[in-house]
Amino acid sequence: MKPNVELGINREFGDIISDSFVILKQNFQPLLKAYLVICGPFLVTGILVTIMFNSQNSYAGSSTSLFSFWGLLSFVFNILDYTALILTTLSYLVFYKEKGNQAPTIMEVWGYFRYYFFRVVGTQFLLTFGLIMGIIMCFIPGIYLLPILGLVIPVMVVENANAEYSIKRAFKIIKGNWWMVFGVILLLSIIVSTIFIVIIVIPAVIFYGGTEWLTGKSMSTPLNIAEAIIIHISQILWMLPIIGLTLVYYTLTEQKESNSLINRIKMFGQSGSGTDQIQSEQY
User: Fold this and answer.
1) According to the per-residue pLDDT averaged within each range, which of 4-8, 130-134, 183-187 is highest?
2) Is the CB of residue 23 less than 8 Å from the CB of residue 243?
3) What CA–CA distance (Å, rounded) separates 262 from 158?
4) Alpha-carbon span 246 to 248, nearest angstrom
């Protein structure tokens, strides 16, 4: 059996991509359980709000404005749902590293989630606003900010920092590595989007399109419900890019500061399990 992947090491681009898949595969069940238990209320509420928003669109016969009541509520809960996913995954990974690459319990993940929740939610809304403004400003500023802002929440959770420090820290550690971070985000996002389209979207379109053609009846209401459920549940796929960004954070900090190497040097000569663990590691 392949040993659990260590997080805090320096990786090349290809290693970040491959190890992201390995970590997700090795930890999928406990990570999924933690997500369903902790993020369940956000998931259910987000689905209900999206169903109401889609229903308003169908009832009006045209697209309801995002700035309508249900449009704004749907936007807010989509951000909350995604932020809960980010925080749950990061809390899991931080505890995973602290426990020597072992899966944490749901209560351990919940402790971190509860501690960081309001800080991360406020920061995520701020980052979302900044990213939207960057995209509106000729699109290119938004593209430039995307990799930098993607590192802010990992910095905040791993280093227990506030928003101001985390933003400055993200700008600092990405210096000279912007293309690498952007490449990781782009490639993993393409993979997730492709999986979503091939496994979920295409079969759903064929099923509902075929059903309407055979029965001659509109499937708008079941389609609205199914669409809301699919959109929110499929957010689980975005665990992969979050894991990738976490590995990027550890890689950049290792390159610039060599934290893990310093910790290992400090542990030389100490007795106990820490020394045994160092001796068992492969370099």
Assistant:
1) 183-187
2) yes
3) 17
4) 5
